[in-house]
Design brief:
- The chain has 90 residues and is mainly α.
- The protein has four helices and no strands.
- It has one domain.
- The chain is elongated and about 45 Å long.
Amino acid sequence: MIYKISLPVDKIFIFIAFVAVLFILLKFLKVSLKLIIKLAINALLGGLILLIVNYIPQVNVPVQWWSLLLTGIFGIPAAVILIVIYLLKK
């Protein structure tokens, strides 16, 4: 069986835009670069978790602008909470 994998390019751009806005906001507030990098890595890993989980059969967490916003701001914990909420609701 061959699976067709298509990346949601529009959603990836929205996520990157949220992370970029967060980066600019933190830089404007004079937050240290070390903390900004840590938050950016956390946000990118959270987005990657959402993307990977959606390729697991029987699991299709809806990726919408608000879930991307939460994952962009809070990172891995937000991705895990969104997955748990989806699985409990299912």
